[in-house]
Amino acid sequence: MYQWRPLLLTAQNRFDVSSVDVTLQQEVSFHFGYVEVASSARIFNETPINPRRCLHILTKIIYLLNQGEHFGTTEATEAFFAMTRLFQSNDVSCHLLIKSVLTGAGHLHLCVLTKDMTGKEDVYRGPAIRALCRITDTTMLQAIERYMKQAIVDKVPSVSSSALVSSLHMVKMSYDVVKRWVNEAQEAASSDNIMVQYHALGLLYHLRKNDRLAVTKMLNKFTKSGLKSPFAYCMLIRIASKLLDETEGGHDSPLFDFIESCLRNKNEMVVYEAASAIVHMPNCTARELAPAVSVLQLFCSSPKAALRYAAVRTLNKVAMKHPSAVTACNLDLENLITDSNRSIATLAITTLLKTGSESSVDRLMKQISSFVSEISDEFKVVVVQAISALCQKYPRKHSVMMNFLSNMLRDDGGFEYKRAIVDCIISIIEENPESKETGLAHLCEFIEDCEHTVLATKILHLLGKEGPRTPQPSKYIRFIFNRVVLESEAVRAAAVSALAKFGAQNDDLLPSVLVLMQRCMMDSDDEVRDRATFYMNVLQQKQKALNAAYIFNGLSVSIPGLEKSLHQYTLEPSEKPFDMKSVPLATTPITEPKTEIAPVATSKLPEKLARSRQDIYQEQLAAIPEFQSLGPLFKSSEPVQLTEAETEYVVRCVKHTFARHMVFQFDCTNTLNDQLLQKVVVQMEPSEAYEVIHYIPAPSLPYSQPGSCYSLVRLPDDDPTAVSCTFSCTMKYLVRDCDPNTGEPDDDGYDDEYVLEDLEVTVADHIQKILKPNFGAAWDEVGDEFEKEETFALASVRTLDEAVGNIISFLGMQPCERSDKVPENKNSHVLFLAGVFRGGHDVLVRARLALADGVTMQVTVRSSEETVVDVILASVG
Amino acid sequence: MEPSLYTVKAVLILDNDGDRLYAKYYDDTYPTVKEQKAFEKNIFNKTHRTDSEIALLEGLTVVYKSNIDLFFYVIGSSHENELMLMAVLNCLFDSLSQMLRKNVERRALLENMEGLFLAVDEIVDGGVILESDPQQVVHRVALRGDDVPLTEQTVTQVLQSAKEQIKWSLLR
């Protein structure tokens, strides 16, 4: 009796332990509570035992578990012991019920199960195996290994399937044991039964998936011999496409041919799987897509909703990358617009929006609005994304879109949905200046009744940025001040900031803004009061420079960096005031190209604020004693490759700029498994007056484990204009040969060196990007004290776009006011760039470009420091 | 996406009030009963009015079917082959339809709960599709018929069981 105790305890833990809802729903035939069940478990103790009654009780227990009912310790113990008595009964059916369904609840009697496993009655053997494997652990597995091997090759399909699937479950637990059953699984794979084939293939793949060669062999074998089971075909297609993806196999490989041949399979499931595999392959050409698209087109007119859904969803994916490939299906998609399944209709419309012409947009939009209220939020987001893409494609349609979006904004919907709409409207405003006023008006209306703080603050921020520059700024003030009166603290604070921007930009509004500020200073919340007082005082000075520095363009430092510096400052009290310039600058977030998000679990991604790359580097470098005296890290460049990708050693370099020094971080990887490198140093020969003062070697570089070595370089003090320099680099190290398998190195080694590509330091390495939201104000703030202007002719450049791109990447500065986008069909353009030069001097560049034969460029540079202006002009010329 | 046999994330049967009659979750997408019930509620609200058979909810593909006062759902990841999920759903429905002699409704199902438990266990095991042929499923479940032939019972046993049955019918 006692040896059951520990087993039981684990068994009970598997009961769902969450809700204890004793008041059960009043079921017709399940009108009882679990207390009742537990007490009625007494009938298990009757002699002779009545299996049928027991069965009834067991069914009820399972039902209760299934309802999320929690079983108390005593009850479970009692029920469990009662159940064990059932094994003495001769009625096998009871065993099976217990085993098959109570698997989660019992460590059952091994020998009883093994008895059933090998018993005469075939139908019991399958479930017995599954139950047994569910409760077994690694040590017990050894004992049943023999039975399992037999069961896998059993001639009865259900037994074989059960054994294979159970083995698959156990791979996670004891890979090594299950691995020994490969031969049996191989034999089962040639079974006639379709499910056995499928399960055997699945198990074989799981056992071999880390061995690419074995997977290839297996694929070859099965693709040649052909399979019966559609499920197994689907699995094969998935394995084949994974392998194609990994090996980057060309589309002329036999695997691709196999997938394509599956498009002609009899079974729809296989055909669809093959089509979807082809569609999901990266870099597929239109010609390769064509057969897949045409079978999907056939599916579009299927009577089965699931098939139509699958087809149109896949076509939607194709349309994201190859809209032209889907155009052939436009007619079929049009028919699906009125499909009774709203999911299908939505997908059809969004696909059409991507592939259709400008003229069909109005009609489609009308169609969507007729049922947008009936579809789920996920699909609404899909619709919004489609509209957003459409706006970029056909900017002239923005008024239709804007109307539609504002209607959607008024409907009910979750946060994700609303955010998608707001983002879409904002992007339209940014793309089309003429839609600005209507867009802002819609957003104003939205924040009047918006329960999402994040969205409200975002919109207020946008109003503050864009509102003051519209022809009639006064009309937004009312909306903003309403927020101050009605909303929560965070929104009120955002509203105050927005108000201040109106006051700073528009002199005629200033008196009224000041009055409103005065009211805000009586707010109940600290933050709101503080902001109001601060802005009030700044505004009263009526100085453009102050406005620019403190209202339009806020701090541009990295927040974690500021926190750290302030903490450091408070630890070492000194007479010196805190210097803002000692704080590392915030790196402007690199705007990634918008990836198309399929409606997949978007809500589940945790929104974590990742630390910027620079903060991580800062910490890494600060840990090295030699670099501690260098001050704050000013800028870290993107990694530069110094070797080809496929060489013995892979080296890339990150350039870290400090106020007077540069640190070069070489990330080296040793790709030779028979070598161990030690004391790795990259020797640098500068071409200019740069001076290498220190090398920090990477102590040891084993196979495939990246390591870093550093070089510290002093920038020339006497000539501040020497910003560019070329270094020739050589990697020097001590090689010790080692055994590729064990990694055990020989005792002695020899010195060797490896020549790397040259490393360039350019002016961009000395300038950090910062974004000035209001460039005009910043331009005035810096003033024209050190302004210089020069004109250049860029003969080799043919278009304005190209010129803008070149200038930005050359200077490494941040384009402001969206001036990096050149409007179409224009012959001139003005580019605004902002940055901070090493040492903390603001630099602003205005480049007027004119397109004639080549591009003529007039560059105006302003900075708080004269040398900086010279440096920039010198490097441009 | 890693090729895998784990296809089904959950099998649900709800009644026409959206209450759970049967629910089996095969992975940890919804670990607690509270989350499960919330998910079921959401599913039911989105599907009970329309008789279309497929939807995308909370990033999962849901195929479903309703009959009289029962709603059957099979749930898989959004990358899953929809037709595979459909095969599971059809197999479940057809098996039950045979077992309940075409009488697929709530009351009949509640009276044959053990049949349902066994059938689902035969169709899906731990998320892997075990069988897709309803004939096979019915065959495997039916052979374990819970009716022990009367001849094997003693007279006292028969009396006993009759007595119990009366007792239970009173308890209901």
Automatic annotation (TrEMBL), chain A:
> What is the membrane topology listed in the Swiss-Prot or TrEMBL record?
Peripheral membrane protein
- Chain ranges of the Clathrin/coatomer adaptor adaptin-like N-terminal domain: 39-542
- State any GO CC term: Golgi membrane
Q: Which residues form the Coatomer subunit gamma C-terminal domain?
A: 764-876
Record-level GO BP terms: endoplasmic reticulum to Golgi vesicle-mediated transport; intra-Golgi vesicle-mediated transport; intracellular protein transport; organelle transport along microtubule; protein secretion
- Supply the InterPro entries for this chain: ARM-like, ARM-type_fold, Clathrin/coatomer_adapt-like_N, Clathrin_app_Ig-like_sf, Coatomer/calthrin_app_sub_C, Coatomer_g_Cpla, Coatomer_gsu, Coatomer_gsu_app_Ig-like_dom
* Cellular location(s): Cytoplasm; Golgi apparatus membrane; Cytoplasmic vesicle, COPI-coated vesicle membrane
What keywords tag this UniProt record? Cytoplasm, Cytoplasmic vesicle, ER-Golgi transport, Golgi apparatus, Membrane, Protein transport, Repeat, Transport
**Molecular functions per Gene Ontology:** structural molecule activity
Principal location listed in the UniProt entry: cytoplasm
List residues of the Coatomer gamma subunit appendage Ig-like subdomain domain. 616-762
The cross-references to Pfam families, in alphabetical order and at most eight, read: Adaptin_N (PF01602), Coatomer_g_Cpla (PF16381), COP-gamma_platf (PF08752)
Top-level taxon of the source organism:
Eukaryota
State its role.
The coatomer is a cytosolic protein complex that binds to dilysine motifs and reversibly associates with Golgi non-clathrin-coated vesicles, which further mediate biosynthetic protein transport from the ER, via the Golgi up to the trans Golgi network. Coatomer complex is required for budding from Golgi membranes, and is essential for the retrograde Golgi-to-ER transport of dilysine-tagged proteins.
Regarding protein family, the annotation reads: Belongs to the COPG family.
**Oligomer status and interactors:** Oligomeric complex.
Q: What is this protein called?
A: Coatomer subunit gamma
Q: What is the scientific name of the source organism?
A: Amphiprion ocellaris (Clown anemonefish)
Q: Which gene encodes it?
A: COPG2
TrEMBL record, chain B:
Where mainly located? Answer: cytoplasm
Q: Keyword check for Cell membrane, yes or no.
A: no
Q: Which ranges carry the AP complex mu/sigma subunit domain?
A: 7-145
UniProt keyword terms in alphabetical order: Cytoplasm, Cytoplasmic vesicle, ER-Golgi transport, Golgi apparatus, Membrane, Protein transport, Transport
Q: Where found, per UniProt?
A: Cytoplasm; Golgi apparatus membrane; Cytoplasmic vesicle, COPI-coated vesicle membrane
Per the UniProt record, one Pfam family is Clat_adaptor_s
Q: What cellular component terms from Gene Ontology apply here?
A: COPI vesicle coat; Golgi membrane
Identify the InterPro entries for this entry: AP_mu_sigma_su (IPR022775), Coatomer_zeta (IPR039652), Longin-like_dom_sf (IPR011012)
- Which GO BP terms apply? intra-Golgi vesicle-mediated transport; intracellular protein transport; retrograde vesicle-mediated transport, Golgi to endoplasmic reticulum
Please report the record's description of how this protein sits within the membrane: Peripheral membrane protein
Q: Does the keyword Membrane apply?
A: yes
Q: Which Gene3D superfamilies match?
A: 3.30.450.60
Briefly state the protein's biological role: The coatomer is a cytosolic protein complex that binds to dilysine motifs and reversibly associates with Golgi non-clathrin-coated vesicles, which further mediate biosynthetic protein transport from the ER, via the Golgi up to the trans Golgi network. Coatomer complex is required for budding from Golgi membranes, and is essential for the retrograde Golgi-to-ER transport of dilysine-tagged proteins. The zeta subunit may be involved in regulating the coat assembly and, hence, the rate of biosynthetic protein transport due to its association-dissociation properties with the coatomer complex.
State how it assembles. Oligomeric complex that consists of at least the alpha, beta, beta', gamma, delta, epsilon and zeta subunits.
Its family remark reads: Belongs to the adaptor complexes small subunit family.
What's the name of the protein? Answer: Coatomer subunit zeta
User: From which organism does this entry originate?
Assistant: Amphiprion ocellaris
